[in-house]
Amino acid sequence: MKRIKLEVAYDGTNYCGWQIQPKDTTIEGILNEKLGSLLGEEITVIGASRTDSGVHALGNVAVFDTETEIPGERIARALNQRLPDDIVIQSSSEVKDDFHPRYQDTRKTYEYTIYNAEFDNPVTARHHHFVYVPLDAERMRTAARCFLGEHDFLSFSTTGSPTKTTVRTIYECEVRQNGRYITMRVTGNGFLYNMVRMMAGTLISIGRGRKDPEWVRELFLHPKRGKAGPNAPAKGLTLINIHYMDEEKEAD
Amino acid sequence: MKRIKLEVAYDGTNYCGWQIQPKDTTIEGILNEKLGSLLGEEITVIGASRTDSGVHALGNVAVFDTETEIPGERIARALNQRLPDDIVIQSSSEVKDDFHPRYQDTRKTYEYTIYNAEFDNPVTARHHHFVYVPLDAERMRTAARCFLGEHDFLSFSTTGSPTKTTVRTIYECEVRQNGRYITMRVTGNGFLYNMVRMMAGTLISIGRGRKDPEWVRELFLHPKRGKAGPNAPAKGLTLINIHYMDEEKEAD
């Protein structure tokens, strides 16, 4: 028996999110099915991030156990031949049998992309959120800096997240403007349910002038569930990568 | 009667190109149909660039004549409400009744986008061409400079283009690298059928080391139809905009 780690990229448009569902098509469901037919055993993957319906990923992580004799690093190419075009395995490798994608020290990076113009751009519309009200990227940048460090993100979580603590640490939060695109890139040690989309929605409220950049500090000082936002649409969100800090230490 | 000019953006993935077809769905066909139902008259648009199946646009141009009393600049918003999500009118305006989108002094700008990595990126796969062989962007940049100026592009045209001359002028041809994306941006006074895709295919051949950057000069010195290339896939190509030089002069 060996444990294989996959880096999984997908266009989430046509999927009901990561997590397997009885009837709907999900990334997890497709991976189990295609790995099962490739390896000739029943396969159950465990995903690092159970992304929502419509959210995209470049580097989500999944692991599974298998009896196969196919070398770990060969599985990516073989599996890609069976997967639909909108799911692409970026790498596969054998990991220690106690490696669990969710119970480790990780840093996750997400990007949220906004297209800000009078009319939408259909070429990239599947992976940006269109905002026609003019946004002030400089105000958004000022506000983004307030996210850095350790804070209670209760205001940025939606009802019923079953989590012990709502404190998270943000290592990087940048707003970049490239023509009509405004992108928020954020790296943290973990994110509450809908937290990145609530952060993006908060920056949009600030960018359009409805709120001041100082509002972010106020949301941390007087936290209340769902106070931030609004929750920006899923299609603008991409999980860029997940960094496993232990792997990094071992590589040193 | 007035003549209206539209700037048209579309994701070409689900269309059989611009030009109207008896059975297949095309951009021109959809525009005629939706304008007809909006304005209550039979409308026939004339497109500036009859893009191929799968090619995208941010700023293709179409004109049509109408008896409507709706102000020209209002038509964009009204038409967008009827169009599918993958076609978006960027602007509409009244133009002189002798304005013809194809018989004028224009500068067209295209971008050709390549994703260069071991595995494809499904998030942007609808509008890039995936190349897994490593490309040397610096070699491509050197070759791109050879396109500048006036040249006989016969080698970059495919069989049967019914054109008087194959001489065209290129004002800008840049290769930019952004992570795993390599983009060729080219502006010219006109392009032969498949010429931009042949230019992109030529740069790819050079980038992967099959040909030297000097090959471009050789293709100009000893022109022969279809000698360049190969013809890179349609999905990587986007018509960025069409500049009407006369409009610019009038604006001065």
UniProtKB/TrEMBL annotation, chains A, B:
InterPro entries hit by this protein: PsdUridine_synth_cat_dom_sf, PsdUridine_synth_TruA, PsdUridine_synth_TruA_a/b_dom, PsdUridine_synth_TruA_C, TruA/RsuA/RluB/E/F_N
Family: Belongs to the tRNA pseudouridine synthase TruA family.
GO biological process: tRNA pseudouridine synthesis
Chain sites annotated for binding substrate: 110
Keyword tRNA processing: yes
PANTHER family named among the record's database cross-references: PSEUDOURIDYLATE SYNTHASE, TRNA PSEUDOURIDINE SYNTHASE-LIKE 1
Function of the molecule: Formation of pseudouridine at positions 38, 39 and 40 in the anticodon stem and loop of transfer RNAs.
Organism: Anaerostipes caccae (strain DSM 14662 / CCUG 47493 / JCM 13470 / NCIMB 13811 / L1-92)
Boundaries of every Pseudouridine synthase I TruA alpha/beta domain copy: 9-104, 143-244
Domain of life of the source: Bacteria
Any GO MF annotation of the entry: RNA binding
Keyword Lipid biosynthesis carried by entry: no
EC number of this enzyme: 5.4.99.12
Upper taxonomic lineage: Bacteria, Bacillati, Bacillota, Clostridia, Lachnospirales
Full protein name: tRNA pseudouridine synthase A
UniProt xrefs under NCBIfam families: hisT_truA (TIGR00071)
Gene this protein is translated from: truA
Keywords annotated in UniProt: Isomerase, tRNA processing
Catalytic center residues: 52
Catalytic activities: uridine(38/39/40) in tRNA = pseudouridine(38/39/40) in tRNA
Record text on subunit structure and interactions: Homodimer.
